[in-house]
Specification:
The chain has 9 helices and 11 strands. The protein is of the alpha+beta class. The radius of gyration is 46 Å and the shape is flat.
Length: 369
Amino acid sequence: MKKKFIIVLFITLAGSLSLMAQSKKKSRAKTTKKTTKPVAAVKPDTTAASLAILPANNKIDTIKSVPDSDDGYLKSIVITKARPFQIFEPSENNVKFYHRYKRDISFKDARNAKFNTTGATLIEAILKGVKDGIITPYDATAVAKINPNGDAFTVPLTYNQFMGKMVDTALVDQLDKDGNKIGSVKQLNDFSPDKVVGYRIKEDVYYDKQRAKVETHIIGIAPLIVLKLSNGDTVGTQPVVWLKYKQCREVFAKMDVSDADHNMYDVSMDDMFLQRQFNSVIVEESNPKGNRIKDYMKTPEEQAKEAVRIEKKLADYKKNIWNYQTNITAVSVPDKTKAPKTKKPATDTKKKTTTPPPADNNTGTPVKP
């Protein structure tokens, strides 16, 4: 029995010693790995053949995409998300000198080129606003009692009706197989922004007694197209539709018209109108009969002179509104703090002799005559 016990004890001791030896070998192997010196890195071969051998998912063969500025022009994120600020609306009791004017902004003037920039024309922005339901177009056709002057905002139009007014028709000849004309058919032309030659704005000018300031508010805007007769002759321009400027501001405030050449940064189309950065000509002033300038001035020269006269009248009113005239005249007051200057006796330069002062017979007491 004792022999068996001793044999079992000897076997357990031998097993424990073997386990301890294996653990020591593992620890020695770990320490040797940590203390080994790093081998010099071999430069990778950058030739086309070596790069082709690399796997597709290798990080060396990947390029990070860096966002650039799309042909060197950065659109202002601030303007694309802008909203129009609220315009002050006065009370009817504070309005004085109320006049309504209509002006024409012509693209023939180089100062109005911002409204017809290629690729970002104002009419394209308006059409998009109408299509998105932001702007409502109103018929500009004069109808008695409903829309006498065509600018009453009483007859709304749909987008298709608006486009129907913007697109004109042309007669296309129909030919037979031999090339002979057998008739003609009306066909719609494609829309082109060049058809719009300017804009007409309707604005109110009044004096606000509460703020003691002359205000100018744009009420409506209308695209202008050339009016042609059936024979092809042009007879002037006419508005296509009328648009409420309050609705247009939702679209104009997001239109970036910045121009670094003219030191204009973060400027929107709404700023162009509110800051009066355009050149225009008055075509109508409010009057009881509702006459336009061309209704009582027949020649273009007379119409231009009348427009200048009305413009000057309006400018003089704005200039002289704070001009006061009084009957008080300024009088110079002598300074009593300074001693009066004594006159020197007159000298004769020719004889170089001084003339004595007259004899003073006064006794110091004034004598009444």
